[in-house]
Amino acid sequence: MSLKLFKRNVRITCWRESVPADPTVFQVSRFPNQTEITDLRVQFNIRKDLHKSPNTCDVTITNLAETTRSDLETKPLNVQVEAGYDDVSRFMFLGDLRFAMTKMDGPNWHTLLQLGDGDCHYRWARMNKSYSENVSVKQVVKDAARSMGLALPPNVEADPDLNEVFKFGTLAHGATRDQLTRLLAPYGYSWSIQNGQLRILRDDRTHSDTYKEINEENGMIGSPEFGSPPRSGLPPHMTVNMLLYPELTPGDKVLLTSKIKTGFFRVENVQHTGDSHGDTWNTEVEIRPLGDPYPKRKRKRHH
Length: 303
Known about the structure:
- It is a single chain.
- This protein is mainly beta and 303 residues long.
- It folds into 3 domains: 8-119; 125-202, Phage tail protein beta-alpha-beta fold, CATH 3.55.50; 211-289, Elongation Factor Tu (Ef-tu), domain 3 (Beta Barrel), CATH 2.40.30.
- It is built from 5 helices and 19 strands.
- Strands 1, 2, 3, 4, 5, 6, 7, 14, 15, 16, 17, 18 and 19 form a 13-stranded mixed β-sheet that branches. Strands 8-11 form a two-stranded antiparallel sheet.
- A hairpin with a 2-residue loop joins strand 12 (189-194) and strand 13.
- Helix 3 runs antiparallel to helix 5.
- The termini are far apart.
- Mean pLDDT is 91; it is low at 1-5.
């Protein structure tokens, strides 16, 4: 991205979806017709972090046609948000419709869509399965991911620690979100849904060894600011303000280059805000240094 790219664009794409017939095998299908919005005023506020509760996005679209307003206010609906510069739209958010409403302000109609990334999977996916003796933790975790209609990330597939077995078998019953937490927490993992995909990470790991760059050439505004340490004895997080940088996602590895600090960091949370017809077109990212001593969680072995 270059500071010279000031021509903004935003694209909203909406799909109607089926309702899952079985919450233990969470599968939906998109209907072939879709609605695409590119030429109206769009305002967005996207908030992403590494918590298990879904990332959120508020989108306000001005002066939709009456039939389109009615259609977009009806669930189930999947909405994708893309934005960028110079006629190049870059993926930023994909989520399920949680709530929608339209209000009139003077001559204009404003339609608000509130979205959650993987919201339906998080709320409704269920497990109801008993396992015989010596089933591996990895197998049960894989089944949990499958019950959400999601795939197990490669880093978890390759982790030998999860080959540990339940000697006397186990029961997975109830909301999948609770089962994932129960299974993964003893191994120091936390999980979240990022852009419709399951992301499972330990505190001291990033999603990939490849990295994105944060510097003035990539749109950094001013200097990074130090915040308070998340816990006593840990290094402080830093907050960086940038021109809109849609690709940044929690768990990413980034290389920060600035006058006050240079090094590798992990993205902890991201906020994208924009107005296609206003002044706002920014990304705020909170990052945490890598390579510093973070205490490992004490693991409680399954039996």
